[in-house]
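--- STAGE predict ---
source: upstream dedup step, 1 unique chain passed
mode: sequence only
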Amino acid sequence: MRQVYLDYSATTPVKEEVVKDMLPYYTNFYGNPSSLYGVGIEAKEGLDKARERVAELINADVREIFFTSCGTEADNWVLEGVADALKNKGKHIITSKIEHHAILHTCEYLEKHGFEVTYLDVDGEGFVHPETLDKAIREDTVLVSIMMVNNEIGTIQPIKELAAVAKTHGVLFHTDAVQGLGNVAIDVKDLGVDFLSMSAHKIYGPKGVGALYLRKGMRISTFMHGGAQENKKRAGTENVAGIVGFGKAAQLAEEHLEEHISHSCWLRDYFWQKIDENIQGVQLNGPKENRHPGNLNVSFDYIEGEAILLMLDNSGIAVSTGSACSSKSLAPSHVLDAIGVSITKMNGTIRFTVGDFTTKEDIDYVTDVLIKIVERLRALSPVNGQKGW
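--- STAGE serialize ---
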């Protein structure tokens, strides 16, 4: 059976070049990077090189990169750290209704501890408008957090414009760039953000490694207490091999960014054209422009997304019904709800995401299988006759 992976926004396969760079740090350069003898110094050199590579990918200074265990930790660190550091200035935070749960659940936690959170509305394509943010900022606002690229519908937010609005009011700005890293060009100096979250496993690196960009001079509380690692801001012996892998993945992402974007966009558009031409009753969710290069979020009328997913899986095709972090939940998508998608369409939604290893032949195979699955499921649907299918 042919195997086709179309869930690159959930995670990516680790590239061979990344694994090759990581392996020596499990066997030869296994020292603790805080040690002063040879094998520890070798580990520290690998750590430093990786930090340089991640910094180069987003045009940051190496001293502004702090490694974490994942993007979720980076998000938690910013929200909780800024809230603690600036609680005497104010207890108001602004985010959007379509953020990743790493942001939303942390905001809910902060609300239980005396903070007030404003959740901004988005338009029908998932965009936060600068004027909406401007109206929401108050005297006691201490942080704005808006994701760079939505993980479900692929909307690329106008981060530079939003950060400029926050700056006008003297408010700190954070963006969760986990889905943006390696998929859009990122220059933190040009964007004007104060904090930016990243994850290795979305750019063909290992799981269990993330990073946080902290602009020089930012006030933020220490996230983990203990040793003096990560410039005394995040204690704990570093995952050296994983971080080295992140560094290599970042280097490859920078070197092949244009090629990656072009390849993914072409396959994404080709796939949508095939779906739109061959299957009736479909809806593309999210924007056609300013969209994640590999993302297609599609609603199929009168059938369940879970049924489509399971039948695709039986044909060797891996997709998602939404965010991988909440795919086991029966609750409707908060993102689709925020952009006005009806509950019936939500239930028939599939997220397809292509990547570097996806081919045209893969898309042709998936399209052929998908057409048959939709026909079969609609034949079984009690509302099938309403549209003449």
